[in-house]
User: Which sequence fits this backbone?
């Protein structure tokens, strides 16, 4: 029996043995693993600021046990969970004005890992001068706590996305959801625009607007921060470009509030979302939902439905029951059901998976660069500039032309929009939006009317 025969044999389940070999280079996240080392070169959101209360929070991130707390001075500490003395969990520590004190023998740690006191030891003890407890730097933004868990000498600038501050008055609402599967399969969802037509629209309950039932034309473009994942659809007289940022290594931005039957130009985001590994088989989907009238002109968002374990769009958490999940599966069911760590060797990828393939290729390239000790190809925004991002929701009135190949029109339209948006990345927010809009308007007038 040749392999080819076995693969095409009807009732040939016996011959189709599934591989159990994970793509560990991409999926494993612990200290010292290639993927884990790569991910440790970036800032990641790890918790909601609102989770920090009177008691320390034990958390696992990138397969490391950690304790997170806000001390009496308001500073956030992220320390190795186990006390440097004899390993008691600092989850049971007492938060101090400065840092945290272990419950067992009173060792006192500052947020940078400095051992301030070893009170049971004799005064002449030099332990605290010879040792620092494991600690990581943190930053808070938009109600999220971010951490950098890589080598201190390689700490990157904290990237503030332009979409967080544009348009003026944009309001950010944070959320955090537990996904019980490997981080990469959840992250790849952002580079997979075709699923929106099937999982969210056809053959399922309509989870967003009816325009999602239209089959999108797909295209993918590299950007300085990752890739732009485009689904362009025809809906009557309108063309709708839904272009999502897939941002290295584990972030994405996308839109949701579109109805695609009225004109819209939103070079900004509905949500910025990271998939942050807890360990190899669990991750947090942590995000900032954006509230502004440009991305959501009809005010469909619901800030009250966003927070710990919840967000205001369907399918992001487990359905209320297994049966309901089977009847109306969402992103959560689809991703978790790929398995704890989906095995790439068992996939049969088609042309619609190009975004997933590009995402893996970009991440693998970064992993190997770190392994070789090379710097990552990442745009520097020295001086605290905003990081340009590329998410766009565009709906334009472009009626079909009699006799013309409309599929080709749809494809070309998406490509031209993406080119203009990516080229606009060098302009400051505000001016950037105006320039991109006038260029797209001129392009439509010249090429599509
Ligand atoms: S185990 Fe923490 S002070 Fe002894
Ligand atoms: Fe989805």
Assistant:
């Amino acid at each position: 029996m040749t392999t080819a025969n076995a693969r095409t044999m009807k009732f040939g389940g016996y011959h189709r043995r599934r591989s159990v070999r994970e793509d560990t280079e991409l999926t494993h996240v612990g200290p010292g693993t290639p993927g884990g080392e790569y991910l440790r070169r970036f800032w990641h959101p790890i918790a909601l600021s609102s989770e920090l209360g009177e008691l320390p929070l034990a958390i696992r991130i990138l397969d490391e046990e950690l304790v997170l707390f806000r001390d009496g001075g308001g500073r956030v500490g992220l320390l190795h969970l186990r006390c440097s003395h004899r390993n008691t969990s600092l989850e049971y520590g007492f938060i101090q004005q400065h840092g945290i004190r272990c419950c067992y023998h009173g060792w006192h740690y500052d947020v940078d890992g400095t051992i301030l006191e070893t009170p049971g030891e004799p005064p002449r003890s030099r332990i605290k001068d010879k040792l620092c407890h494991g600690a990581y730097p943190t930053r808070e933004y938009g109600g999220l706590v971010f951490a950098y868990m890589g080598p201190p000498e390689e700490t990157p600038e904290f990237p503030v996305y332009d979409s967080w501050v544009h348009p003026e008055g944009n309001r950010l609402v944070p959320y955090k959801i537990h996904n019980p599967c490997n981080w990469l399969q959840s992250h790849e969802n952002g580079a997979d625009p075709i699923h929106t037509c099937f999982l969210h629209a056809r053959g399922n309950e309509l989870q967003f607007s009816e325009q999602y039932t239209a089959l999108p034309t797909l295209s993918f473009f590299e950007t300085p921060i990752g890739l732009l994942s485009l689904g362009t659809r025809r809906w009557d007289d309108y063309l709708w470009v839904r272009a999502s940022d897939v941002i290295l290594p584990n972030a994405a931005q996308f839109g949701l509030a579109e109805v695609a039957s009225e004109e819209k130009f939103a070079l900004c985001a509905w949500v910025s979302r990271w998939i942050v590994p807890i360990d190899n088989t669990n991750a947090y989907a942590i995000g900032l939902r954006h509230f502004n009238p440009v991305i959501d002109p009809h005010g469909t968002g619901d800030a009250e439905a966003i927070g710990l374990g919840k967000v205001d769009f369907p399918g992001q958490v487990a359905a209320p029951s297994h049966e309901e999940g089977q009847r109306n599966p969402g992103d959560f069911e689809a991703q978790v059901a790929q398995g704890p760590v989906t095995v790439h060797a068992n996939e049969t990828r088609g042309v619609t998976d190009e975004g997933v393939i590009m995402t893996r290729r970009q991440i693998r390239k970064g992993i190997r660069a770190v392994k070789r000790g090379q710097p990552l190809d990442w745009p520097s925004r020295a001086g605290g500039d905003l990081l340009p991002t590329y998410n766009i929701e565009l709906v334009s009135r472009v009626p079909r032309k009699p006799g013309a190949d409309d599929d080709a029109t749809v494809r070309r339209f998406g490509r031209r929009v993406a080119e203009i948006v990516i080229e606009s990345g060098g302009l400051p927010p505000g001016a950037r939006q105006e320039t991109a809009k006038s260029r797209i308007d001129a392009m439509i007038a010249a090429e599509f009317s």
Q: What stands out?
A: Residues 162-447 form one domain. The longest strand covers residues 226-235. The mean pLDDT is 94.
